[in-house]
Design goal:
about 0% strand, elongated, mainly alpha
């Protein structure tokens, strides 16, 4: 997967969600950021999640405007949907 602008942004969004879970606190984020291993693990986990989301969208039933879209376009739409809901 090529890390284009929106792919990186979505990975960061997912990493931040994973670093500070629902009902978490600042301590969770500090703990996550204090270890190189946890950061690298967080990046890998977030990238794998993004890959799963992209494939799920590409494989959605018709009509599917994203079936042949590139990763950047799909990530841009996911981010747009996240922004709408927050």
């Amino acid at each position: 997967m090529k890390w284009t602008q929106n792919v990186k942004k979505l990975i960061i969004i997912i990493m931040s969600r994973n670093a500070i879970p629902k009902n978490g606190c600042l301590y969770d984020g500090i703990k996550f950021l204090s270890s190189k291993e946890s950061i690298l693990s967080g990046v890998k986990k977030a990238e794998e999640e993004v890959k799963i989301y992209i494939e799920a969208i590409r494989n959605a039933k018709e009509p599917n405007q994203f079936k042949t879209a590139d990763d950047e376009t799909i990530c841009k739409e996911i981010i747009r949907q996240i922004d709408i809901k927050t």
